[in-house]
């Protein structure tokens, strides 16, 4: 393993989206928590609907499993009916939040500007944002146009200070790969992750860029996860469909473990 990768603990995040009922959440956690208690070299998290988060935080209190919100508002409190406050998420013990997922951008009109507001709101309330970058970087992977992806990373991080950016995780999730069954190749994912790291180096410094985790997401499965996570700039995966079952989720954590051994 490269020296640089040693600085970054692999992170496997399930994104359940809107796919679980309360009893299923409970049963899933019951099944995964005992094996996860033995895992200390990989961080594991589950993003779930807001209504489950407080119970999940309680149920995972003695476990290393991280509870992740799927969205957050950009104001700390106020007259925003139906939204969730970053302050309230932090108050109940949530530590991570997805920001700017492709489905938020597509179905709920999130833009680079609102993503940036949410990233800053999360950080000022002590939440660690997992920022989705959904630009199609296939052209970049063929050494063509990288500019839109660079711009999206820079826009998401505007106003984020050097001492805060270490709390950020970036997830590269190309739109065409999410839920499609067509993952990026390990090589495409690595080239995109490397470009993101170069952008972070430019925005902050090379030393800081080496400390920030970059995940890949989009049709990850137990079959393709090993080659993707084995790439030098990829520090984990953000997984929808394939992480809905406890065994698959645990397998993905095991695979992450093998990438650092
Ligand atoms: P998928 O979803 O793994 O089902 O493609 C990934 C995501 O939406 O984050």
Q: How would you summarize this macromolecular structure in one to three sentences?
A:
The chain has 261 residues and is of the alpha/beta class. It is built from 13 helices and eight strands. Helix 2 packs parallel to helix 13 and helix 8 (147-156) packs across helix 10.
What does this protein structure show overall?
With 261 residues, this protein is an alpha/beta fold. Helix content is 43%, strand content 15%. The protein has helices at 3-6, 22-36, 50-59, 86-91, 102-107, 112-124, 138-141, 147-156, 162-165, 186-203, 206-209, 225-229, 246-258, and strands at residues 11-15, 43-48, 66-69, 96-99, 128-133, 169-172, 213-217, 236-239. Strands 1-2-3-4-5-6-7-8 form an 8-stranded parallel barrel, surrounded by 5 helices. Helix 2 packs parallel to helix 13 and helix 8 crosses helix 10 (186-203). The longest helix has 18 residues, at 186-203.
């Amino acid at each position: 393993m490269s020296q640089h990768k040693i600085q970054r603990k692999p992170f496997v995040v399930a994104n359940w989206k809107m796919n679980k009922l309360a009893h299923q959440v409970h049963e899933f956690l019951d099944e995964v928590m005992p094996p996860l208690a033995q895992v200390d070299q990989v961080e594991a998290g589950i993003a779930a609907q807001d209504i489950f988060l407080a119970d999940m935080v309680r149920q995972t209190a003695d476990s290393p499993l991280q509870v992740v919100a799927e969205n957050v508002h950009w104001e700390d409190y106020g007259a925003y009916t139906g939204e969730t406050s970053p302050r309230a998420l932090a108050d109940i013990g949530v530590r991570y939040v997805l920001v700017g997922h492709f489905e938020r951008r597509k179905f709920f009109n999130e833009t680079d500007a609102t993503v940036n507001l949410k990233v800053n709101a999360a950080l000022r309330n002590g939440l660690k944002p997992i920022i989705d970058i959904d630009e199609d970087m296939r052209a970049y992977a063929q050494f063509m146009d990288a500019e839109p992806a660079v711009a999206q990373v820079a826009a998401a991080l505007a106003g984020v200070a050097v001492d805060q950016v270490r709390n950020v995780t970036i997830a590269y999730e190309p739109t065409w790969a999410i839920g499609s069954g067509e993952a990026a190749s390990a090589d495409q994912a690595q080239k995109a992750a490397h470009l993101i790291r170069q952008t972070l180096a430019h925005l902050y410094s090379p030393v800081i860029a080496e400390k920030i985790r970059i995940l890949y997401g989009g049709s990850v499965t137990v079959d393709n996860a090993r080659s993707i996570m084995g790439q030098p700039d990829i520090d984990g995966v953000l997984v929808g469909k394939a992480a809905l079952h406890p065994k698959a989720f645990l397998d993905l954590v095991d695979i992450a473990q093998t990438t650092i051994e």
